[in-house]
Each structure stands twice: as structure tokens, then as C-alpha cells.
Amino acid sequence: MKMLLKDGKRKAVTLSYDDGVIQDIRLIEIMNKYGIKGTFNLNSGQLRPEDALPITEPTGTTRDRMKLSEAVRVFKASGQEVAVHGLNHLNPVACTDPELVYEITADRINLEREFGTIVKGMAYAYGNYNEAVTGVLKKCGIVYARTVASTNGFSIPENWLEWHPTCHHNNPELMKLAESFIETPLKPISCELRIFYLWGHSYEFDRDGNWQVIENFCSYIGGREDVWYATNKEIYDYVEAYKRLELSMDSGIVYNPSNQSVWARINGTAYEIKPGETKHFK
Questions:
Q1: How far apart are CA 21 and CA 42, in angstroms?
Q2: Residue 112 and residue 205: Cα distance in Å, rounded?
């Protein structure tokens, strides 16, 4: 039995962008235009005061964050995920354990209260983490966290708290990687799966004057029937649901105890195993 992704697909695309800056508004418009989904990692303690003057023209050189009311309006309506990035964007490795617990839990509490959703993911501020940091994350209920260590590959992470992305959007090989992801034939025997995970900061597009990079990427990789477009959380939840499948000793009976359908290839045929369903393969 081999895992397939949602709807029996074997490829997925997800994005991850940090800081909750006003350029996220334009990025979301581009993502939604092409059916792309992803996760926006917010520093709730760094959002602009509600009485601050509106920013009509981004400076492009700094992290011009949204107001909380703007963030709630933009992200709630977007269909995208919000996740933790630290209350005040402190370096996790430089924090004491109590400081880090507060950075994570206060940010998580704020986001859950304002967005009405359970927040389980994050991105490491400055990309910094170590074993002590991941230990604190586990105690704070964080189950997946993105690094900045690009792999130039498409693997499902072995350790969700060290979820390494495929690449940053400024990678000069971005479109070659996208073409490889889409065009290179999948290995049928091993039931190879691929996840293209792109990350960055949307203010960088203003700073570098290269919005066409993300427009070209989304235009090329979006709208494909054989690709699952998902948030970080949706991918994590799906893979964990698959891992929870219960098998009989001879693997002829499979039970899905989770609350979502999962797909598997069994003896060369793709099957959907619905929530609470027991399937017999003999």
C-alpha cells in the first residue's frame, strides 16, 4: 500500500510568506487568480496600531505591516492559512525558554482569537532554530514549522518541525525547478510523491521590482488537474491522517479512524478510504 495525496494526486504545491506585510494583499490576489494556496506567518505583536495612518504606497524597502483589522479582513476572506511567526519576531535561538514560550503562545492565542481557527504551524523568525527551540514548540502545540534551508527538491518532510522548503522565490533556478516538478515523469513503481514548497516575503517583490517572478511562477504551476494546491496545514493534516490508517496483519483490511478521506494505491489501483470507513481488499 502506497500513499497518494488528496483526490489520488501525486503532486502538491504550497507557499509560505512571512510577517503580515501589506504587500501580502497583492500576493494573495495573484495566488487566488491561479488557484494557489499557502500559509502566511504573522507577528501579531508587530501589526500596526489601529489609529496609524493608512499606507497607500508601500515603501518596498521595509516590512510595512498591516493593521490587525486589515489582516483579519484580508486573510479571513482569502482562503489562505495564518500561522505563528513569533509575537515580536524575536530570534528563537537567542530567547530563554520562558521568552520563547511567550513569543509562541501569545502569538498563537492572538491569531486563534482573531481568526477563529486553531493554529498549529509556524515559520522560524530569521530561520533560526535548534533542538531546544523545537522542544519548546512541541510543548506549545506547534506541530509543523518552516525553515529557510532550501532543498531544491520536492520531498515530504521526515521531521515536520524542520520543514525545509523547495526554494525562495529569488532562486535563479525557480522556473527550472517548477518545470522539473511539472514535466519530469513520476516513478510509477515507487509511487513517488512531490511537494513544491515556495517561501519568501512579499515586500521583497516591491524592494526588488520583480512581481513578475511570482506572477510567472503561479501562472505556470497553477490550474493543473494533477496538482493539489494546499496550505501547509492541509498537507500536514492529510499526511498525518494517512499515517493513522489501521491495517490487518495481512494488509487485506484497512480502517480510516480520521475525520478526512485519504487515498492509497493498493496493488496498482487508487482507492479513497473515507472517514470511519473499513475497506476489504480480498
A1: 9
A2: 29
Cell for 32? 487566488
Determine the Cα–Cα distance for residues 93 and 100; give it in Å rounded to an integer.
Answer: 9
Residue range 47-105, pLDDT digits in tens: 988 888 767 666 555 668 999 999 999 999 999 999 999 999 999 999 999 999 999 99
Asked if 165 and 150 count as a contact pair (C-beta separation under 8 A), the reply is yes
Q: Which one-letter amino acid corresponds to residue 116?
A: G
| Residue 97, C-alpha cell as written in the block | 525558554
| Strand ranges in the chain using DSSP code E only, listed in sequence order | 2-4, 11-18, 38-42, 81-84, 121-123, 144-146, 167-168, 194-200, 227-229, 246-247, 253-255, 262-266, 269-273, 278-280
Query: Which string of DSSP letters, residue by residue, matches 32-50?
Result: HHTT--EEEEE-GGGSBPT
**Which amino acid does the sequence have at 91?**
N
Sequence-distant (6+) residues with CB within 8 A of 3 are: 191, 193, 239, 242, 262, 263, 264, 265
Q: Report pLDDT for 189.
A: 65
Cβ pair 144, 121 in contact under 8 A:
yes
